[in-house]
Design goal:
With about 120 residues, the chain is of the alpha/beta class. The protein contains one helix and eight strands; from the N terminus they run αββββββββ. The longest helix is centred in the first third of the chain and has 23 residues.
Length: about 120
Amino acid sequence: MRRRSFRGLAIAFVCLFGAARVNAQTSGSINGTVTDNTGAVLPGVTVTTTSPAQMGAQTSVTNEKGQYRFPSVSPGTYTVVYELPVFSKVVREGIIIGIGFTAELNVQMQLASLLESVTLSGI
């Protein structure tokens, strides 16, 4: 009888643990590193995700190693935008995230072209 009780508890535990594990995986994630055209990491880049699958936008800023992370995003199709002054904005569209899937988006940003206008006038 004691053996049956133990077996019953073990089965119940496995079922509960398995159900909790399945329920815990309801999202995916987006991670990556941002560098410049020389391969140097870029800290301070604002990274924004938008999707019809989420309410509003999520924003992150790259750390000192140029890394960013969105650890929990709903399954869906995303647009990810990278912005840093003096660099051209980078837009990645059509990023598909599924349950338990991690998209690693490593991006290289280019310096923005500067257009200057100088006006000289005589005194």
